[in-house]
Amino acid sequence: MGSLRRRLNRAGFPLTSVTATAATFALISAGPARAANACETERPYWTPGAPATVLDELTHLAMSPLTIGLAVLTVLAVRFRSKWGGLIVCLMWSFLASILAFGWVPAGRAELRAAAITEGCIGSPALFIGLVAAICVAMILFTTPPERRDPSKE
């Protein structure tokens, strides 16, 4: 670390304790400023003062383009009774549900999402995850080929 500091000092960046303290303070104070408009960024049509319910979150998640695309793929797999297509679509649904369940967010948006949850504009995705599980179970049961009876064994 010493050689890096020397190069930065030569380049015109004086690294003193005052500079380091100012940089640390700027980084710490930037978090609340970014989180202040969390609901305007995460849920632009949310009405302030009303906490988001499970149904609000279900509606929001169900209307995303990814979910609509998965619903179309589900309908196609069920329509053509494709067991492999149903399995692949079920894995895609499961991947989406695990992203929601484990709270994965893109880099740099974690504190923004946490602030939006604290403000109440993001609700629990539990109902959506339960609906995804029901869709997957129904799709697997419906696309499984029927069991054929062997007349010689009767």
Secondary-structure map with pairings?
Blueprint: H1 2-10, H2 17-35, H3 38-42, H4 54-62, H5 65-79, H6 83-102, H7 110-119, H8 126-143
Helix pairs in contact: 5-6, 6-8
Quick summary:
This protein has 154 residues and is an all-alpha fold.
Looking at the structure, what is the overall shape?
A: elongated
Tell how many strands the DSSP assignment holds.
0
User: Strand portion, in percent?
Assistant: under 5%
Mean pLDDT: 82
SSE succession:
HHHHHHHH
Largest sheet: none
Low-pLDDT stretches are 22-35
The number of helical segments is 8
Distance between the termini: 81 Å
The assembly state of the depicted protein chains is single chain
Question: Number of folding domains?
Answer: 1
What's the alpha carbon Rg, rounded to whole Å? 25 Å
Query: Helicity range of the residues?
Result: 55-70%
Main structural class:
mainly alpha
Question: Features of this protein?
Answer:
single chain, 154 residues, mainly alpha, elongated
What does this structure look like?
With 154 residues, the chain is an all-alpha fold. The chain has helices at 2-10, 17-35, 38-42, 54-62, 65-79, 83-102, 110-119, 126-143. The chain has one domain (36-146). It is built from eight helices and no strands. It is elongated and about 70 Å long.
